Structure formats: C-alpha cells, structure tokens
Amino acid sequence: MSNIQGFLAIELDGAGWDGADLTRAVLVAESAGFHAATFTDAPAPGRTNALQRAAFAGPATRSIALVPEVDTVYTEPFHVSTQLASLDYVSGGRAGWIVTAAESPEAAAAVGRSSVTGAGLGQEAAASIEVSRRLWDSWEDGAVIRDVATGRYIDVDKLHYADFETPADFAGAGYSVKGPSIIPRPLQGQLPVLVPASLLGEVPADAVDGVLVSAPTPELLAAEVRDVRTRVGAPVAVIAELDVVLDSRGQAAGSRESAFDGGRAAFAGTAAGLSDLLASLLAEADGVRLHPASLFVDLEELGRLVVPELRRRGVLRAPVQDGTFRDMLGLERPASRYTSATAAPDGAGK
Amino acid sequence: MTQHTRAKSDVFMPSGQIQFGVFFQGVNSGTIWKAAESGSQTDFESFRRIAQTAERGLFAAFFLGEGLRLREHLGRPHALDVVGRPDAQTMLAALASVTKNIGLVATQNTTYNDPADLAHRLASLDLISGGRAAWNIVTTDNAWTGANFRRGGYLDHADRYKHAEAFVETAKRIWDSWESPDGPARRVLHEGQHYTLDVTPRLPRSAQYRPVLFQAGDSPEGRNFAARQADVIFSAHPKFDDAVEFRKDLVERSLAAGRAANAVQIMPASEFILAATAAEAAEKKEWVRSLQIGPQQAIAYLEQFWGRELSSYDPDGPLPEIDPVVEETSETRGSGFHGAKARQLADQWRAEAKDKGLSIRQFVTSKTARIDSTFTGSYTAVADQLAEYARVGAVDGFNISPWLIPTGLDDIVNHLVPELQERGVYPTEYRGSTLREHLGLEAPERFADQAAEAVRA
Which of A17, A76, A280, B306 has the fewest CB atoms in 10 Å of its CB? Predict the structure, then answer.
C-alpha cells in the first residue's frame, strides 16, 4: 500500500462490560479520531463474543471501522461468513475481520475436536478465508432484481455455488462448502481481511488486505514492519501492534505498566513521547493498532493529546464520514469473482 | 420452583392476557415484495423500523429465523420469493443497541452448531442486551443442508431430538455453571454419541439468569421436547378450537414431564390483515393474497411437488393432468418435501381442486397462504376475538409475521394494541427490563448437574 498518511486502530477489550460500557468505549474511540476499533475474542472471564460486540457498536457509530477477531479453526466457515457479512450490513459497510487460529487445547476440547497445531493452523485459516470470500461473492451485485413483470425477486443467474473443498494436503479433517451464501453480497463486496503475520505463508498474501505485525520492542517493530512489507507486497496494509500506557492525571505510566504480557512492543511515558514514536512507526507502517493498558484512562489522553498532535503533523489520513472500511484502507470495491463475463469484463474480485 | 408468578403448579389458570412477538421472516412468500411500499430485506433500517415499532407497541419479542441453505427449485435457487437474510444473532446484537426492552429471539439449530460455542454466543447476546435474549431451538438432519458445513449430513432423522435434547441440556449446564454471580465457573464435561466437550464457561449469568428457550417443533416428539425443556412454544395452532386443544395437550405433556401446567407458554405463528371496517379488511386481504401468490409462484409451487417443469400450464386453469416425477427424497427440492408421496398427493389435489372449482392459482393460494393463521377484520372485531383467547387462556400470545416490511406492524401497533389495552387483555407497560419478566416466566430452576462428572447422552 503506497500512502503517506496512516491510520490508527484501537483494541476495545471489553471483558466484563455491558452494553452501556461498550457504547461509551466505541463512541469515545470514534470521537477521539481513531479509524478502527478492534474486538478481541481471546477467551477471558466475562468477555462476550467479539463479533456481537462489534455488531452492537454498529448502529451507535458513523465512521469508525469495526473489526472483530473470529476464529477459523473451531468454527463453521459458513456461519463465520454469514456473521461477518451481516456485521457489514449492520455497520453500513464498516466491518472487517481479524482472522485468528485458536491454538489452545482448551479451544479444541470445547468442541470435542483434536488440537490443530503447526502448519495446520494456517491451513485452517486459509481455508476459512477462502470459504468466506467465495460466499461473499456468491451473490453478484444486483442479484436482487424485484422484477414484477416476470415475478422474479432474484436473478438466479447472479447466484453461484461456492463449491469449496479443502486441498489434498489439508492437515485437519477435510470439508466442503456448497453455497451460495444465505445473505446477499456484503455492502463492501468483500470485507477487509487482516491476519497476524504468524499466519502468513500458509495464508497467502493475496488472500488478505492487512497484516498485523508484532515485535518485542519498538525498535524491532519498525524493522519487522519493513520485513513484512517486502514479503507481502504493495496492496496489503501493514499494521504495527503497540501496547500503550500513558502518564495520566499526575500518575506516571510506569505504575500501570505491569498490565502488559511482554509479547508486544510497549510504550510507557508521555503523550509527546508516544506521538513521536507513532509518527516514526507510521513512516514505515500503514497503520498502528494500540492496546491501551486501561482503556478509558489511556483513551482520554490519546484523544486529548496524541491524535490531535499526529493530525497536526499531517501523518494521519482524514476519517471518511459514512465511508466504508475499504474506503479507509484505500481499497476499491471489487466485482464479484463470479460476475458474468457479459456484465463486467474486468471481473475478478479477491 | 423458586416462585409461582401465575398459577398453582398442577392446574392451568388463564392469565387473561396476551402478548405479541414479531417474526421478521426474511424468506418465502408471506412477505410481499411487489408492492410500492415493500422495503429492503437486508438494510439495517428495515430491521430497526420493525423492532422499534414493535417496542412502541410493547411487544414482548422480536424474532428471527435462521438460514442454513437457500431453498431451491428444480435444482437452482428459488427465484420468486423474498430470500437473503442476515445471521440472527449478529442482527439481534445490533438491534440491542437501538432498543431498550424488547426480547431478541434467535432461531439456531442444534445440528450445525457446537453446544459450547452456541451457549457462549447466546449468553453473550443475553449480557449485551441486558437480559433480553432467547433461543428458538430447531433441529435439521438432511444431507442437503449439511453440504454447507464441516460435518456434512451426519445426523439420522430419528436421532435429531435425542441429539437436540443432549445439546440443550449441555447448554443449560454451561449457563448454570457459575456458583454465584461472581463465579468461579464449574468445568462442564459431556461425552455423548454425537459430540464430546470439555469446557470451562466464561460468562456469568445475565439479568434474566439465562436465555429464554423457545421451541417450534409440532410433532409429538417436538411437543414432548418443549414440555421438558422450553419456556415458550412457537406453535402452528392459532385457530381458536385448535389452540384450545393444543393448550390442553401441552398442559398434559408439561405435567407428565414434571413441570407446572403453565410452565410452557404458547405463541402461535399468525398474520393480521386489519382495517377500520370488515369490508375494507376483506378487500385488503384480496390484495395481500394476490401479491403473496402470483401466477409464477402458483406454478412453481406445483412444480416442487411434481418435480418437473409446468410453465406451459395456465395458472388460471385446472391442475396439471400430467403425473409427478416420483422421488422419495429429493436432493434438490429443499427441506420439507422428504418422502412426499408425490403421485398420491397429485391425485388428491386434483380431486380437491375439481370439487371446489379452483384454478391452479386459487388452489395454491388456499394451500400456502396462512389461511389457518390469519386474523382478518376490523380492529374492534379482531380485538374482541383475541380477548376471547385471553379469557380462556387458549394462547399466551401471538408471534406475528408482517406481510409488509418495514411498515407491516404500523396498523397493529397504532390500532389493534390500543383496542386490546382497552379490553384489559394486553400490557400497558413493560413489566421489567428482561424478556423473562415481560413474559412473566419464573426464574429457571438450576439445571441438575452431576458436578464434575461426565454425563452420557
């Protein structure tokens, strides 16, 4: 992706939250100027389903993209596809998908399957992404014709079987998905699909729209971003992952820093320091996703000090009012891969 | 039972009240798409409008079906009716943020879901909505539907309720696994014929303890299942005498299952065609029916049973003399036509149409339009009729399918609801904040669990 201005995403964790907490968080994030909110689905006590949290936030917001994690290993790809397409409808085209591949034995035991490990995880993710992409295209645009003269609600020629089958070298139990989808094509045509860099390889770069990149320190993070960019090529957004804890209300950041698990690059300090770091990261990455140590405390500082400063420096792209997540990422709306040759010769969607 | 809010446990006492739910169908011929007023079936605004209108009319619940595979006709997706609908729980989670009180009912099958995952998502919807979620439990068994899922068509028809019941009991154990509101949760193990699981639940109880359970099966097995497991049955018996019979039957089954006579509420599927006068309503009905079953739909309906193309037949003429293609189970006709004794049925239908002097279109309208579940008439006459249901306790409410989206509830909320309120048979406010409270359901009994031991299905 060749852009000068980047975007900011924020993880809205939400364990133990009710609907009112959720609305407050997403509205604060939107008004602070974040481009996207993400919703983790990692198992934790009190954490509700990520895709439902994103759906709940849909009607309450206007411009922020809503991007839940959805597992691909122990879920039904047909349901996942329908749920994400539905999220796109309830959010007016602001939905995306962070693909995850559950690794824990507990996730396998919960559905009574044997654990998928190693390359099998990426294969499950790749298969599920392919199922969703085919199903999202399985109703061409304009398939609902409402033609009173012929009595046809849909044009059957614009509906297509997905006929997905797992490849021969699939490590897990192979499966097939017939289609078509039970819901018309999502508003965006195809939802932006983001994957953690760890799944790249088994998941081909041309199957995704964005890659989430982690590294143990901010310095290593910039290098990792450069490395991933050379692996995935231009049209894929590279998104740096950063834990954040800010000095707030006279309390030094260090006192709250222990919240981090140590897997991700972390920043603790002043808003000015963070602004400098983000500006330098955004020179390399298309976007940065922030994981605040305590959401409401850090979000207030981010909205008050950091986002305005980054805007002043001209490193953030302008939010698109009533735009789609694809618009925000600078992606065109693709034609369905099944578009009849006569209708649109330039054809193939992702 | 912890408390009795409505009646002594072993004698059925009518509550004297009815409630409404709304069923946004999203598929099939009941929803008119050919009228100028017909709105989008997928835009969020259509769902918001119906849900908010229902809430203005103090409806207990907003209800969504579930799509697992597109209905087909002669080997291709069926083109003539409304089709293409969102995932139920995703839509309900979004509606939770634009409504305050109305219950949110998701139809979800036990065959192509995993118990731990579905229980988690329903509990999630229940928490996000502040205790307004419900699950309409359905089962599926055919391989045709299974073609969209990892596990394919694995379940025998005869096993589907056994499987569903083990599923529902597992879900209840997951919801009941928290010893106190603050936890910790007990680990839930299940080892059965169709699935095995080992999970430590992550969500606490909701404001209504756990999601309300609806059930829609009408076979004796389905009724017994409801009597043992459900809070509400979404029945197919709205006609008065039929409804009274159904109530009797369900009371007996509930008592036999060791539950209170009124443990399971009854909300039949229904359609309302209303106007200021009876004559106007009758006229409106003609219009509604003509748009629900057009000439193409009439021919297509017969084609599904005949298993062959019939487009050369005149929809305003007699039923085809040609015989159906006989197939015991069709892979392409969609669910609902299993083992149809096609030739026998064709003979029977031809005789019936001839006797009554019906054309193809008239005959199909008589078969498909909700003749048994439609209330047609003036607001006052229909209100009188419903008041009688309330008086004898024939039903606890009606689950209304609007024939127009998104304005199909306006008449009901603006005119019928006030008439019912005047008669003292309809709520004048929401009783509480949860669906369980709206319905006046007792707090559920904690599901009897064998602690940490594996339970065999």
Answer: A280
Q: Kindly determine whether residue B97 and residue A177, on different chains, have CB atoms separated by under 8 Å.
A: no
Report the alpha-carbon distance of residue B449 to residue B177 in Å, rounded: 9
pLDDT digits (tens, 9 = 90+) for B33-83: 999 999 999 999 999 999 999 999 999 999 999 999 999 988 899 999 999
User: Taking the domain B19-276+371-456, which CATH number applies?
Assistant: 3.20.20.30
Q: HSE on the CB side for B253, CA within 13 Å?
A: 22
Task: Output the six-digit token pair for B228.
Answer: 């043992």
Q: Assign a CATH topology to domain A72-200+320-350.
A: TIM Barrel (3.20.20)
Minimal Cα distance from B144: which residue of A? A178
Contact A154 B97 (CB under 8 A): no
Cβ(B139)–Cβ(B160) under 8 Å?
A: yes
Cβ(A95)–Cβ(A325) below 8 Å? yes
The model carries a pTM of 0.94
CA distance A124 to chain B (A): 12
pLDDT digits (tens, 9 = 90+) for A318-338: 877 789 999 999 999 999 999
Q: Are B147 and A178 an interchain contact pair (Cβ–Cβ within 8 Å)?
A: yes
Measuring CA to CA, which residue among B367, B316, B365, B362 is closest to residue B345?
B367
Please report how the helices B44-56 and B88-96 are oriented relative to each other, as an axis angle in degrees rounded to 10: 60
Residue intervals in chain B for CATH 3.20.20.30: 19-276+371-456
Within 8 A by CB and 6+ apart from A8, the residues are: A33, A34, A35, A36, A278, A287, A288, A289, A290, A307, A310, A316
CB-CB contact of A329 with A209 (8 Å): yes
CB contact under 8 A, B70 and A49: no
Instruction: Judge contact between B77 and B71, C-beta under 8 A.
Output: yes
* Interface residue of A69, A89, A106 to substitute, partner B, most B CBs within 10 Å: A89
Q: Are B392 and B244 in contact (CB under 8 A)?
A: yes
Question: Given an 8 Å threshold on Cβ–Cβ distance, is A52 in contact with B121?
Answer: yes
Q: What ipTM, to 2 d.p.?
A: 0.95
Q: Which one, of B242, B93, B86, lies nearest residue A66 by Cα?
A: B93
Report how far residue B346's alpha carbon sits from residue B360's, in angstroms, rounded to the nearest whole number: 12
Chain B contact set for A62 (CB, 8 A): none
pLDDT tens readout for residues B87-117: 999 999 999 999 999 999 999 999 999 999 9
The Cα–Cα gap between A305 and A173 comes to 51
Report DSSP state, residue A205.
Answer: G
Tell me if B122 sits within 8 A of B110, measured CB to CB.
no
When scoring A153, A160, A178 by the number of chain B Cβ atoms within 10 A, the one with the most, hence best to mutate, is A153
* Size of chain B, expressed as the number of residues it contains: 457
Does B87 sit within 8 Å of A183, measured CB to CB? yes
Q: How many CA atoms lie within 13 A of B156 on its CB side?
A: 5
Q: Residue B267: which of B222, B226, B227, B234 has the closest Cα? A: B234
- Cα(A99)–Cα(A127) distance, integer angstroms: 11
Contact list in A for residue B80 (CB cut-off 8 A) is 151-153
Judging contacts by C-beta atoms under 8 Å, the chain A residues touching residue B185 are 45
- The answer to whether A326 and A91 have CB atoms below 8 angstroms apart is no
Residue whose structure tokens are 């789609």: A324
Are A183 and B197 inside 8 Å of each other by CB?
A: no
Ranges of each domain in chain A: 72-200+320-350
Sequential DSSP letters for A276-314: HHHHHHHHH-SEEEEEESSHHHHHHHIIIIIHHHHHHTT
